[in-house]
Amino acid sequence: MESPWVPNAVCLLLALSVTWDSAQEYRSGIYRVGGSVNLTCTNYTWNEMLFTAWEININGIKCIIADGIGKNTHDTCMDGKVLQNTTNGKSYLHIPHFKDTDGGMYTCETVYQGSNKKVHITVSAAVSPQISTRLDFRDGKREAVCSAAGGKPAASVSWRSTWNYNVTLSSTENSDGSFTVESKVILPETVSADNLICIVTQLSWRREHIMRVPPAPTSGTYQEAL
Ligand SMILES: *[C@@H]1O[C@H](CO)[C@@H](O)[C@H](O)[C@H]1NC(C)=O
Ligand SMILES: *[C@@H]1O[C@H](CO)[C@@H](O)[C@H](O)[C@H]1NC(C)=O
Ligand SMILES: *[C@@H]1O[C@H](CO)[C@@H](O)[C@H](O)[C@H]1NC(C)=O
Ligand SMILES: *[C@@H]1O[C@H](CO)[C@@H](O)[C@H](O)[C@H]1NC(C)=O
Questions:
Q1: 185 or 4, which is more confident
Q2: Rounded to whole angstroms, what are the CA distances from 94 to 23, 48, 69, 84, 89?
Q3: Which of 40, 101, 130, 160 has its CA 20 to 30 A from that of 109?
Q4: 43 lines ligand 2 (CB under 6 A)
Q5: Whose CA is nearest to atom 1 of ligand 4?
Q6: Do residues 72 and 154 share a domain?
Q7: Which residues contact 190 (CB under 8 A, 6 or more apart)?
Q8: CATH number of the domain bearing residue 198
Q9: Nearest residue CA, atom 5 of ligand 2?
Q10: What are the backbone angles phi and psi of residue 79, rounded to the nearest 5°?
Q11: 70 and 159 share a domain?
């Protein structure tokens, strides 16, 4: 039986937005495609909560998943996203296999004893960077460059070698929100570029990517060392 104070999830959401001035919070998250994602609205547990609802807006198409004490889960998304409870009674939205097309605005509203809270989460998919290494000549010196272009979020670039080096790191944001990271190392005259390895890690990948630097100046070639 429906309780009189809440005919359904949609009506409750509408009612809340006009009657209460809810506390608002803004967050964002970038997630790996193929992995699972758990989104937490608040830290309230079902001891304190009456109701929690997620409105998911993907390119203007909206659906709702909601759960409340004594009510069946309301789900108009029907695409595998589910509400789950932790053992200590917190609620979270579980996306079993995160896809590119799951990126969008996730707005959750939690009603708890006496008040409510609204959280807006901008969810986007990680984008793997294009990686390359090259050897440049600059001011008569050899400079090894390791580049990770167009990654979202920014990749981490580091080096491994048997000699000491100083790193010049630059990170620039592209117009699509991705980042291009370049790390540069000047090679001492006595060493071979073979002894230098660039290591790139990024959220899209399960493991680090390892590249050697070309022995002579070239344009970027990708060479997996392992
Ligand atoms: C999300 O929660 C599930 C349990 O529902 C857990 O198995 C999984 O590891 C969690 N995923 C992440 C990315 O934390
Ligand atoms: C929940 O509490 C933990 C620990 O206090 C905090 O780090 C986390 O940000 C909180 N999460 C939310 C959704 O408020
Ligand atoms: C989570 O716990 C609440 C309170 O016990 C319950 O009403 C709800 O159905 C549970 N949801 C799931 C998905 O287990
Ligand atoms: C790195 O930079 C520091 C400070 O500029 C300098 O003292 C040091 O010699 C440099 N090391 C190498 C290997 O170039």
A1: 185
A2: 23, 21, 19, 7, 15
A3: 101
A4: yes
A5: 166
A6: no
A7: none
A8: 2.60.40.10
A9: 43
A10: -130, 25
A11: no
